[in-house]
């Protein structure tokens, strides 16, 4: 096919459909088993901007840098089953926000931890897809994550069923994660020696082919977290106490609701795909958030593609959050974690993809900035620990 | 805020005047850039980064465990 914009033949269309990778590519169509082995390697560098001097109380100003290596492998096992394995290895170093206290004018300033030594995290995830009929696939998931102070084991079961007449795909699943923390006592004192938490998640979804060029999907999920949900490394400042620094303390349960809706629309005249994703999040810690992501995936000739995506995010604060406290809360809960503060964020992502025979090569850049001014609601006091980061990734994917 | 959510979803679903699409007419839908997540490794990585920096996470999967990053 010389012109990528030209309508492919019916045979090519069916071949493309048969190559859909369930759980790998997440096709808008009905799932099909992996037809050929695929090996992928992605390497990413993540870097947070240093905390600004005006917001800095003490500790290192250099925040996190993380190198991430991802190795993925997907292969058919039988005509009705396939397997996918993903390994992620992260190497982290840098300082993180520790606590916030008021300066002489009452403005919150951030104390950082000392620069950490290099830490590593290993995460392996497996997915076994079993096509019990031509329209139904059962997926069994399992994974394990290990770092020096945190281990997590997770399992899951998902089902996807295609209803061809209605052009619908219904899906659902349930997953469980059992996590164990053993915070290390270093330059930053910790609030607990050993603790556990677990997370139970369930979701249902429905996808619909609207026309030859458009598909939509909506999903509802609920998660229940229980156990030690505080951050063992963070402190809060309570002004009216003799010793004003106390451990971060959060409720030991949390229920989260997520509603995710996605639209995909192909524009033949531009030879491009338009993506629109919206996620609504609500939990019983009073955090409510909106995430809107718009993307344009532009094909250039037959082998190049340039992707542009803009992401906007806005969240409200947890009910027990404050940058610092004048007095202790009656319920004893308190956090100054910027991740539970009110703020908004903007992200821009650019990606170049090149197909070269059996290879697909990619380079991706993302810039992300969190500020109070990006928030949907007005923010009274901005948390000084809000993050700005950039990521750069290279991807190498090969079909065998 | 809930009204905004509803309005956005209604907008996204407003295209739902469904027309019959035979399997041999799904060449556009089968294109890789039309997938919900066109690059699985990249989507996994981004979801992990956002999970570690924001209070919200989750969506359309039952997979994955926790990490010390959040």
Strand and helix layout:
The complex is a heterodimer of chains A (400) and B (70).
Chain A lengths: L9 H9 L19 E11 L7 E3 L6 E14 L2 E14 L2 E6 L5 E5 L3 E18 L2 E12 L2 E14 L4 E14 L13 E17 L2 E14 L7 E3 L7 E3 L5 E15 L4 E12 L4 E13 L3 E12 L27 E14 L2 E13 L16 E12 L1
Parallel strand pairs in A: 2-6
Antiparallel strand pairs in A: 1-3, 1-21, 3-4, 4-7, 5-6, 7-8, 8-9, 9-10, 10-11, 11-12, 12-15, 13-14, 15-16, 16-17, 17-18, 18-19, 19-20, 20-21
Chain B lengths: L1 H12 L26 H14 L17
Task: Describe the protein.
The complex is a heterodimer of chains A (400) and B (70). Chain A is an all-beta fold and 400 residues long. Chain A has 1 helix and 21 strands. Chain A has one helix spanning 10-18; strands at residues 38-48, 56-58, 65-78, 81-94, 97-102, 108-112, 116-133, 136-147, 150-163, 168-181, 195-211, 214-227, 235-237, 245-247, 253-267, 272-283, 288-300, 304-315, 343-356, 359-371, 388-399. A 16-stranded antiparallel β-barrel of chain A has the order 1-3-4-7-8-9-10-11-12-15-16-17-18-19-20-21. A 3-stranded mixed β-sheet of chain A has the order 2-6-5, with no helix packed on it. In chain A, strands 13-14 form a two-stranded antiparallel sheet. The longest helix of chain A is centred in the first third of the chain and has 9 residues, at 10-18. The relative contact order of chain A is 0.12. Chain B is mainly α and 70 residues long. Chain B has a domain at 45-70. In chain B, 37% of the residues lie in helices and 0% in strands. Chain B is built from 2 helices and no strands. The chains are: A mainly beta (400), B mainly alpha (70). Chains A and B meet through helix 1, strand 1, strand 3, strand 7 and strand 8 of A and helix 1 and helix 2 of B.
